[in-house]
Amino acid sequence: MLVKTNALVEVSASPEIVFDFVTSLSNLPKVFRGFGPIPAIIKAEMVDGGEMREGGVRRIENSDGSVIDEEIITFNKTGRQTYRLVRGFKFPISLLIESGGGDWKFTATAKGTRIDWEFYFMLTSGLFYPVGLLLVQVFMQTAMQQCLDNIQECLENQSE
Fold this sequence. Notes:
Layout: E1 2-11, H1 15-23, H2 28-31, E2 41-46, E3 57-62, E4 67-76, E5 80-87, H3 93-96, E6 97-108, E7 113-123, H4 129-158
């Protein structure tokens, strides 16, 4: 069973600047700080040591000790990044979540760039739907919105 949520923000910077900031491996730990049972990112790197790209695998080390591998599905500087979580869920979350993924869209606006971030988890069983819904639509959604707010703050403070 699928559960998903989304968050959005508008940033006073061009889509190219926003995309580069968001997809920078060194920026992920600065902006994604987690919330409740959703751990903060402490390190992000490409498994092969290369640059972010379609088909690559990004490894995320989290504050709870989990290490999640994400396959980069779309990496398009004109406006989109999608990824799929392929392994690394830590017990007891591994009992609840089978897979997950995210879709980031970057759209030019009069102010700068609108970021739309959708995230989903596929649950291991429909029996976990109430817990999964709470995890995604409360804790993950809050962590996502705080992350986007942090991105906005970082980018808008850079331009001052």
